Amino acid sequence: MAEPVRDLLAVPQDFTSGRIDIASGVARMSATLWATRWQDPDADVDTAVVFVHPTSNFMGHYALRSIAARGLAAIGMATRYAGNDSALITENCLLDIGAVVRYLREDLGYAKVLLVGNSGGGSLAALYQSQAENPTITATPAGDPPDLTVDRLPPLDGLSLAMAHPGRARVYTDSLDAAIRDEHNPFDRDPELDMFRAEHGPPYSPDFVERYRAAQEARNRRITAWVRDELARLAEDPSGPDDLPFVVHGTAADPRFLDVMIDPSDRVPNTILGDPWKTNFLPARLGHYSSLRSWLSQWSIDDSRSDAIAELPHVTVPVQIVYGTADNAVFPSHAKAMFEAIRSERKEMIVLEGADHYFRTTPHLRQAMCDHIARWAHSL
Fold first, then answer.
1. Separation between Cα atoms, residue 181 and residue 284, nearest integer Å
2. Cα(128)–Cα(95) distance, integer angstroms
3. What pairs with residue 115 in β-bridges?
4. Does the domain spanning 5-167+305-378 belong to CATH 3.30.70.80?
5. Full-prediction pTM beyond 0.70?
6. Which residue of 63, 75, 260, 337 is surrounded by the most CB atoms within 10 Å?
7. Is the separation of the CB atoms in 156 and 86 below 8 Å?
8. Within 10 Å of residue 252's Cβ, how many Cβ atoms?
């Protein structure tokens, strides 16, 4: 077997949706999605494994070369929103995945395609296949295109949800700082709901966690109500803008980050970006910047469709779940809830003991994950 080599894939895609939600005019005019492919040039490969995430640029994903070395075509794709989720529309990400799957089948001739939803890509992968098998989405939560009953998505042969959480709106809401009282001032804080005050924990009492979770959901719904009011106000003037940006403060305040006995695992108390209090206000943290329309599609707990627990029951292809016991971004309850939601006749859950989210300290477990994904792909 020869060493895998990498090439660049230019995938045709139409970005003209009637709304500008990516800033680069060059990217819009190119009508092209980009992906990288690793593959043994001497092998007869009939199965492609595609790694996807809503915003992370997976063209350089750490698993690609290893997957290709196991006799597969390994593709790392980037959606149109690579590196910027501020105006992301989940439904458009489904169109981008569909363009890549169609290109792999029709232009490059792969017989089978496995979609690997890694981290935040897990719920997107589940939603994609659910809509490919039984399209129900006729518009975004804000009432915009696409209509997936018309723009049909090519179905997959299987899914692997690797180190994946069940949905951006779910984990975002679980991380919203419930103590923030004024959306314009993150330091105007309710002391009775401040998880960073020592008198509350860690460890946190069940009563505090219950009150805190309720307050997080209430905050998400207050923002959603404000978003809908703003959209209604903008709609009153058809000559003006139909969307606006805004800031959400405090998005890394899940009590699980500090109390490992909530959802017990082998993780250390922290976030994947460092100290929770600092990360809570870090501009690079999830969902600090959003447009009104993107909020409904991506972050609203009541409106976002990207929810693996809700979508996996509608998927009939084989589904694999892989999670690590030392992951401090994806917790055991996430993996177990997704696994229980699967109704496919073929499913499996792989537990990587001691693996953290990025395998920073356990590269051998990264190879173990690739072994399991490759085996799953070959079995389709």
1. 22
2. 9
3. 50, 159
4. no
5. yes
6. 75
7. no
8. 24
Neighbours of 359 (CB within 10 A): 22
Return the closest-CA partner of residue 331 out of 286, 269, 282.
269
Q: Which pLDDT band, with edges at 50, 70 and 90, does 17 fall under? A: low
DSSP lists the bridge partners of residue 11 as 33
Per-position DSSP letters for 278-323, written without gaps between them: HHTT-TTSTTSEEEHHHIIIII-TTT----HHHHGGG--S-EEEEE
How many angstroms separate the Cα of 287 from the Cα of each of 65, 170, 171, 173, 317? 31, 12, 11, 10, 31
Look at the block and give the residue holding tokens 């009541």.
Answer: 302
* DSSP-assigned states of every residue in 139-202: S-TTSPSP-TTTSPPPPPSEEEEES--S-HHHHHHHHS-TTEEETTEEEEE-GGG-TTSTTTTT
CA 286 to chain CA mean position, Å: 11
Closest by Cα among 269, 277, 364 to 326: 269
Q: What is the pLDDT of residues 62-73, one digit of tens each?
A: 999 999 999 999
State the number of CA atoms in the 13 A half-sphere of 184 facing the CB: 0
Q: What percent of the chain has pLDDT over 70?
A: 99
Residue 309: phi and psi, rounded to 5, are -65, -35
- Using CA atoms, how far residue 349 sits from 5, 119, 327, 340, 346, in Å, is 31, 15, 16, 10, 11
